[in-house]
Each structure stands twice: as structure tokens, then as C-alpha cells.
């Protein structure tokens, strides 16, 4: 007869092993990048343009480019995403249209990032004639992070108790006044969290910017939003696969800066979420 | 005055609510607009099942079967690795881990979700690829297997978090009922909780696989990019996504090659659409139960 | 039927009012008049439709997407369907079952409705807040801490704050939805005092689970059962010689 407690032990060992197989490599990746990337960190690396065919010098234009793209993406996606979240949380009825909108959001989240790149190329670069530019890249990234912003903002809005809305309406406030003065202020931390997660996502993506903005090598800063820029993730791809004999230190250093940027944004999001949970008054 | 302002705002809210539908349709329309032109030079059958992908030879050969098989092989490998490990980890986190460790594990998995794919690709290049090469005594470690391992890893956050949600949302009395009848905790998980969470777990797996098929940068960096029909998992392959990413930069706008890459985009869009709609149905079924 | 009260003007006229939530009827053909400057107590067991009835009067039931309404409610002769809903709710204030302060300061809670109706002048706002808090018997307890979060008040204070908040928008009618269900006897007495005082200026409709409370403060009492109005009469008569034996049973505590 099989001993149920022994099979439980075996099963638990397997489950623990599975978990470790995911979490340990994650830790190792972060540690390796920090360990091997730190020696590259100095002021020159962060503030200088790439030199000697990207085998020396710094990554300043790529950092700046990524910051531009992220700013552009969020200034497009946040207003639309937030309003869409308000629609779903406050206005939509339980009907077919709402179901279709939700399905569209799920699909938008699932479209492969390289397909966003194609779309951006076809619509912004060619059809609208923006060319490969910060504008095209930002809009492409903006549409890509829209689902993240909608989903997290909607959760934040829906977590505001319905009774607050009832009270406000019962005092004769209009629906929009209720949203503006009661719902939004109380959902703000959650919306902020979603926005920052969207920023992190936009900063790290490569495929959507490949054909819409990213420059292989461009040692000066952009003058306008119609210019191309270098971007950190694409730069890492380039020096890892396209340029031979790049010092390992520079590759790891670039990876570290990118990782630090993305993780820093996630960290802020986590801190906001945590603080808010503690302070929640209802 | 206030009323007018509010009416305008509410119109904007409705318009933004519809924006998601608009963008999905727009993406599809522009893929179609640029992609369908390829079928002037190649039939859909020859495109999907053609065995050679030589887009810049004269005349161009535009069969994407090697790319489809490349994606399929890498995805299959990733699924075989990620499903048991991902679901296992989800069970561990949802049911077994003590509360404090649970938080650490969840943060670890969230951390993984946040790492950009190009960084994972880079790490894969410098660690995994040499390992696979020496382990199997191969001429190159840039193989489908390396891609599968890397992608399995990248699918984990999706699979673990959605499957954990599914397990977590099962009513407590299911498990307690089983335990009260004298089942061990593991028996309760295996015989009661897993079946009860099955549609959610299935959705988790599907969305994980969706992530794998759509992944671009990491896969381009470590699978070797040989556009030939793969004979084993230990050879270089090229996926649908990597093909677009690698070749669109050089394709001339309006050329056959350009159209063909957009047609590959249509294929990817349709696959991800199918996966997401199906997964959504599974998740919906779970809610209505 | 009710002689000495029938001379007062009719505030609300309710005619053949029914409402369904989905397919479930919550009110069936209710007709009654509510006259000004009186307290109408509405009693009945849970799920008798009394709260639904109350929420008809300021159109709060319309927030439920599945509701379907038939019949007519008039406010001073005008069908409330034709009154701008924001103005209707300004005229017909509501105090909820549980104390529900907004996540704002004490001052901002009271000022909220007034501000939403467009008042910006700081001096006038201060005046209105003070007057309303006094009317709700809360001023003395909070006058030195108006900037504090409303959540720092006790339950009874929070409920009086909610009354002040309703008064601040200067309504004509105040709807109380079991306002003392979460309160201890002392807080309850304070809220009841406030209500009796309020009927000098306002029309009050009080939904309550507490039969004794209805007897204490109501001029008129209406008894609801299963979504129907069983009877409405002067409170004295209702509690001494009810016309329907179901009313008698409920008042004596035989069910509900």
C-alpha cells in the first residue's frame, strides 16, 4: 500500500524545487549583472558619448533617448488609459460592449512586441510620415503600455468603496464631481503604481522601437521629437550581437544601467503601494 | 457652464473607453494593409507551407514553414519545461509556503517579470549558450534548446501568478472538506484543489505560451537564427518574431520582402488573438461557475 | 383619515409606485402622501421594501443598473423624473444606515456638498459649516479640530457629522435610513433629539428597524411588508389600535 504521507513529502520536495528553479536564477541574474557591471560604472560611462565604434566611452545618448521615449509614451498613454479606466469602472454597464472592450484590452496586452513595431512602422513612420523619430517610437510604446495602465488604474478605481460614491451623489454632486473629488484622489496611489509599472515596461522594450526610432549609433542628442535617438535596450542588443570585440565590462555596465532603471521604477511602485496600504483609512 | 464641461469630459471618457477596440482594429488593419500585398507574388498555401525562406534571393522564396516550425519547436520546448515547474511553483506559493517566505517568493517572481527581455537575452548569451554548447558537445550553443530554456523562464511570471490566483480563489471549504475526510494536505491539493482550479490554470498556461510565442529579443539573441526546418532541438532555429526583428531593418519599404514580413506579423497577430480569446473564455468560465 | 395633519402641504405624492431589481419586485403599488414638517416613520421587517421606498424619493435606486420603476413620485407637484437629479438630491438629503464620512477632514466633509453646488466664498463656507454642525449638535465637540480626519470621530459623532453634512446643502426633506443601527443608546438618543428638532424646519422620513424609535419620534408611521404598504396612520393610533392584524403582530414583536 502506498503511504500517503510519503507521497506528500515527495510532492512537496518537487514543488519546492520548482519554486527554487525560478527564484534562484532570478537572484543569480541580478547578482551577476551587478557584480560584473559595477566596475564599468563611473561618471564618464554615464555622461560620455560612445567612442571607438561603441567599444569605449559612455552610454549617455542612449540613457537620454530612453528617458525621452518613456516620457513621450507615458504622456500619450496616461490620459487615454486613465480615462478608459474611468469608463470601465464608473460608466460601463454589464453588456456586450463592455465585454468587447475588456477583450480588446486583453488582446492589446497579448500582441507580440515586435508586431507593435510593425504597426508603428506602418502607421506612424510611413502612413503619417513621422519617419523614424521620437514621436513614432513614443506613440508605439504608448499604445503598447496602454493595457498595463488601464488594468491597474481600473483596479485602483474599483477599490474605492461604493459607499463614498453614494454619499457624494446623495449630496447632489454630479457623477463627474464625484469621480473628480472623491474617487480619483483615493485611487491616486494605485494609478501612480500602474503608471510607473508602465514606465518600466516602456523603458525595457526593444522590439517596438527597432523600426520606429532606435538609432544604431548617433553620438549627439536629439533636437526635436522628429529626430531619431539611441535607446538603452537597443544599445545593449547592438553591442551584444552586432559589434564584435566589445569589452565585456561595457556590455555588463549597459545591462546594469538598464536593469537599475527598470528595477528602480518597480521599487518606487512597490513602495507607493505599500505605504498606501498602511495608510488606508477605510 | 459646468454641465457643458462635464458633458465634454464624459464624451472623452467614452471615447477613451472605446480606444482599446480602436487600437486593436487599427493594428489589424495596418498589418493587413501592408501584409496582404505579398499574396500577389505567392499563394497563401505556398507562403504558409513553403519550405524555403530566402527573401532576398532572385527570385525571392517566401515560404515561412521553417519559421513556423522554429517557433513551434522553441515554444513546445518551453512549454514542456515551464508548465510543470510553473504550476508546481504556483501550488507551492499558494498552498505550502509560510506567509513571510511567500512574500519573498512573489517579489522574486515579480522581479523576473520586470527584467527587460534584452537583458535576459544578454545573460542567456553569456551563461546559458556556452553551457548548452559544452554539455552537448555542439559546434554552437545558439540552439532551439537554449531558446526553450530561456523562454520557459520568461513565461514563469505569467504562469505562476495567474495559476496562483486561480488556486487562491477556490473557496476554502473545498480544501477543508477534503481534509475533514482524512485526506492529507497533498491529497486535498491534488484531488480537490487542482481540478477545481483547472480552468484558471489552463488559462495561465495558455497566456504563458502566448508570451513565449510573442517573445522577440531574447529569442533572437540565443537561438542562432538559421531559417531552415529544424531536425532536432539541438540546432539553431529562427522564429517568426526574430525574423521580423532581424530583417525589417534591411527590407526596402514596398518590396516583396517588406510585405512578407508584415504577413508574418499577421500570422503572429492571429495566433496571439486566438490564444488570448481562448484564455479569456477559460477565465470567464471560472468566474461564472 | 388623519385630520390634524392633512392641513399641512403635501411634500411628496407617491402614486402606484413599483420597482423591480432584475425580476424581483421590491415595491408593489405603493401610494401615500408625505406632508411637510412632520416625521414619517417607516417600519417593517427586513426585505419589506422600506429602504427601497426611501431611496425612491431621491432617485438613488437608479444607481442600480437592473432596476425598473413604474408609477410616479411628485415633489411639490412635479414628477421627480423631470427634476434635475442633482437639484432633487440637494432638496432631498439622505443620512445612511452606517456613519459614512468621506475620507476628508471634518470641515471638508460638511463643506463638500456646498462646494459641489458651486459655493467658493471661504467666509460663507465657514458660516454654513458652523451652523450645520450646531444644528446637528456636534459643534461643541469638534469646533477645535475641524481640520482633523473625520475618521477620528466616534461612531455617534460620525453619524451626527453626516447629518450636518446633509443639512449644509439646505435640503427641504431629510431621509434617514436606519440612522441609529450602528450606534449605542446614548448616541441614539442624541440623534433622535436632533431629528425631532429638525422637523421644525424640514420634512423628515425615517426608516427604522426599531419599533420603539418609530413610536418615540414619528408623527406618522407607515408599515411595509413584502414590498407592500400595509397601512399608514398617526403614530399614536398605529401603536394603540392598528387597523391591520399584521401591523399589530409586527409591533408586538410576533415576527420580523
Count of DSSP helices of chain C? Answer: 10
Biggest sheet strand line-up of chain C: 6-7-8-3-9-10
Helix content of chain C: 25-40%
Mean pLDDT of chain C: 91
Chain-averaged pLDDT of chain A? 92
Report the sheet with the most strands of chain A, covering strand number, pairing sense and barrel closure: 2 strands, antiparallel
Strand content of chain C: 25-35%
Distance between the termini of chain A: 54 Å
Proportion of strand residues of chain A: under 5%
What is the terminal separation of chain C in angstroms?
27 Å
Helical stretch tally of chain A: 11
The radius of gyration over CA of chain C amounts to 18 Å
**Shape annotation of chain C:** globular
Give the strand tally of chain C.
10
Q: Low-confidence parts of chain A lasting 5 or more residues at pLDDT below 50?
A: none
Structure description:
The complex is a heterotrimer of chains A (282), B (289) and C (256). With 282 residues, chain A is mainly α. Chain A has 11 helices and 2 strands, in the order ααββααααααααα. Chain A has helices at 4-37, 43-47, 60-91, 96-110, 113-127, 134-158, 162-170, 175-204, 207-210, 232-242, 248-279, and strands at residues 50-51, 56-57. A two-stranded antiparallel ribbon of chain A has the order 1-2. In chain A, helix 1 (4-37) crosses helix 11. Chain A is globular and about 70 Å long. Chain B is mostly helical and 289 residues long. Chain B has one domain (44-288): MetI-like (MetI-like fold, Orthogonal Bundle). Chain B has a two-stranded antiparallel ribbon. In chain B, a hairpin with a 6-residue loop joins strand 1 and strand 2. In chain B, helix 4 crosses helix 6, helix 7 (172-180) runs antiparallel to helix 8 (185-196) and helix 9 (198-214) runs antiparallel to helix 12 (256-288). The radius of gyration of chain B is 23 Å and the shape is globular. Chain B starts with a helix and ends with a helix. By secondary structure, chain C is of the alpha/beta class. In chain C, the strands form 2 sheets. Chain C has a 6-stranded mixed sheet with strand order 6-7-8-3-9-10, sandwiched between helices. Chain C has a 4-stranded antiparallel sheet with strand order 2-1-4-5, with helices on one face. In chain C, helix 4 packs across helix 6 and helix 6 (155-168) packs parallel to helix 7. Chains in contact: A-B, A-C. At the A-B interface, helix 1, helix 3, helix 4, helix 5 and helix 6 of A face helix 1, helix 3, helix 4, helix 5 and helix 6 of B.
Amino acid at each position: 500500500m502506498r503511504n500517503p504521507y510519503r507521497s506528500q513529502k515527495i510532492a512537496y520536495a518537487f514543488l519546492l524545487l520548482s519554486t527554487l528553479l525560478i527564484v534562484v536564477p532570478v537572484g543569480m541574474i541580478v547578482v551577476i549583472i551587478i557584480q560584473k557591471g559595477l566596475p564599468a560604472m563611473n561618471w564618464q560611462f554615464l555622461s560620455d558619448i560612445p567612442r571607438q565604434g561603441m567599444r569605449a566611452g559612455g552610454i549617455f545618448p542612449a540613457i537620454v533617448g530612453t528617458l525621452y521615449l518613456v516620457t513621450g509614451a507615458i504622456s500619450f498613454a496616461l490620459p487615454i488609459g486613465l480615462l478608459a479606466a474611468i469608463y470601465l469602472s464608473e460608466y460601463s454597464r454589464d453588456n456586450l460592449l463592455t465585454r468587447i472592450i475588456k477583450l480588446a484590452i486583453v488582446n492589446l496586452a497579448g500582441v507580440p512586441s515586435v508586431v507593435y513595431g510593425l504597426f508603428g512602422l506602418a502607421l506612424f513612420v510611413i502612413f503619417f510620415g513621422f519617419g523614424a523619430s521620437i514621436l513614432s517610437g513614443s506613440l508605439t510604446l504608448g499604445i503598447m503600455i496602454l493595457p498595463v495602465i488601464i488594468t491597474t488604474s481600473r483596479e485602483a478605481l474599483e477599490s474605492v468603496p461604493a459607499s463614498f460614491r453614494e454619499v457624494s451623489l446623495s449630496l447632489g454632486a454630479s457623477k463627474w464631481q464625484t469621480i473628480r473629488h472623491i474617487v480619483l484622489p483615493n485611487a491616486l496611489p494605485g494609478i501612480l503604481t500602474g503608471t510607473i509599472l508602465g514606465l518600466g515596461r516602456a523603458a525595457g522594450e526593444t522590439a517596438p522601437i527597432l523600426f520606429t526610432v532606435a538609432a544604431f549609433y548617433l553620438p549627439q542628442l536629439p533636437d526635436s521629437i522628429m529626430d531619431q535617438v539611441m535607446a538603452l535596450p537597443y544599445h545593449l542588443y547592438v553591442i551584444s550581437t552586432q559589434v564584435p570585440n566589445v569589452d565585456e565590462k561595457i556590455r555588463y555596465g549597459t545591462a546594469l544601467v538598464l536593469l537599475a532603471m527598470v528595477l528602480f521604477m518597480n521599487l518606487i511602485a512597490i513602495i507607493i503601494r505599500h505605504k498606501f496600504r498602511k495608510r488606508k483609512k477605510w | 457652464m459646468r454641465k457643458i464641461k462635464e458633458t465634454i469630459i464624459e464624451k472623452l471618457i467614452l471615447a477613451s473607453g472605446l480606444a482599446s477596440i480602436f487600437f486593436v482594429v487599427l493594428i489589424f488593419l495596418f498589418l493587413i494593409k501592408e501584409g496582404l500585398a505579398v499574396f500577389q507574388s505567392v499563394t497563401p498555401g505556398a507562403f504558409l507551407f513553403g519550405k524555403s525562406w530566402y527573401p532576398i534571393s532572385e527570385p525571392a522564396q517566401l515560404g515561412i514553414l521553417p519559421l513556423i516550425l522554429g517557433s513551434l519547436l522553441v515554444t513546445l520546448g518551453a512549454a514542456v519545461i515551464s508548465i510543470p515547474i510553473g504550476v508546481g511553483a504556483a501550488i507551492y506559493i499558494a498552498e505550502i509556503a509560510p506567509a513571510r517566505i511567500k512574500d519573498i517568493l512573489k517579489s522574486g517572481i515579480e522581479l523576473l517579470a520586470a527584467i527587460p527581455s534584452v537583458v535576459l537575452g544578454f545573460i542567456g548569451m553569456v551563461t546559458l549558450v556556452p553551457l548548452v554548447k559544452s554539455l552537448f558537445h555542439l559546434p554552437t550553443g545558439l540552439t532551439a534548446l537554449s531558446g526553450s530554456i530561456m523562454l520557459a523562464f520568461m513565461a514563469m511570471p505569467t504562469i505562476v501568478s495567474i495559476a496562483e490566483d486561480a488556486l487562491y480563489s477556490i473557496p476554502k471549504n473545498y480544501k477543508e472538506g477534503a481534509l475533514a475526510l482524512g485526506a492529507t494536505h497533498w491529497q486535498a491539493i491534488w484531488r480537490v484543489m487542482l481540478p477545481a482550479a483547472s480552468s484558471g490554470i489552463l488559462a495561465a498556461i495558455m497566456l504563458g505560451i502566448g508570451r513565449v510565442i510573442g517573445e522577440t529579443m531574447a529569442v533572437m539573441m540565443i537561438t542562432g537564427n538559421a531559417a531552415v526546418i529544424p531536425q532536432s532541438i539541438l540546432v539553431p532555429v529562427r522564429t517568426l518574431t526574430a525574423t521580423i526583428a532581424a530583417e525589417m531593418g534591411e527590407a526596402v519599404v514596398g518590396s516583396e520582402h517588406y510585405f512578407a514580413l508584415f504577413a508574418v506579423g499577421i500570422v503572429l497577430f492571429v495566433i496571439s488573438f486566438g490564444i488570448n480569446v481562448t484564455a479569456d473564455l477559460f477565465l470567464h468560465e471560472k468566474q461564472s461557475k | 383619515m388623519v385630520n390634524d395633519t392633512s392641513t399641512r402641504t403635501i411634500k411628496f405624492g407617491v402614486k402606484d409606485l413599483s420597482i423591480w431589481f432584475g425580476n424581483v419586485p421590491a415595491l408593489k403599488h405603493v401610494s401615500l402622501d408625505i406632508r411637510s414638517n412632520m416625521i414619517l416613520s417607516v417600519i417593517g421587517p427586513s426585505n419589506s421594501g422600506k429602504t427601497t421606498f426611501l431611496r425612491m424619493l431621491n432617485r438613488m435606486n437608479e444607481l442600480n443598473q437592473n432596476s425598473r420603476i413604474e408609477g410616479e413620485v411628485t415633489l411639490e407637484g412635479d414628477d421627480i423624473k423631470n427634476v434635475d437629479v442633482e437639484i432633487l438630491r440637494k432638496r432631498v438629503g439622505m443620512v445612511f444606515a452606517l456613519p459614512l464620512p468621506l475620507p476628508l477632514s471634518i470641515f471638508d466633509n460638511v463643506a463638500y456638498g456646498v462646494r459641489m453646488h458651486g459655493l467658493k466664498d471661504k467666509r460663507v463656507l465657514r458660516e454654513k459649516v458652523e451652523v450645520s454642525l450646531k444644528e446637528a449638535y456636534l459643534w461643541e465637540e469638534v469646533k477645535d479640530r475641524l481640520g482633523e480626519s473625520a475618521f477620528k470621530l466616534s461612531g455617534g459623532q460620525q453619524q451626527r457629522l453626516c447629518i450636518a453634512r446633509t443639512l449644509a446643502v439646505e435640503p427641504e426633506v431629510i431621509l434617514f435610513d436606519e440612522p441609529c443601527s450602528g450606534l449605542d443608546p446614548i448616541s441614539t438618543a442624541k440623534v433622535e433629539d436632533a431629528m425631532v428638532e429638525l422637523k421644525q424646519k424640514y420634512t423628515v422620513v425615517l426608516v427604522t428597524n426599531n419599533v420603539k424609535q418609530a413610536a418615540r419620534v414619528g408623527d406618522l408611521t407607515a408599515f411595509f411588508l413584502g414590498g407592500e404598504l400595509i397601512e399608514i396612520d398617526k403614530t399614536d393610533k398605529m401603536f394603540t389600535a392598528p387597523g391591520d392584524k399584521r401591523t399589530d403582530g409586527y409591533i408586538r414583536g410576533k415576527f420580523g
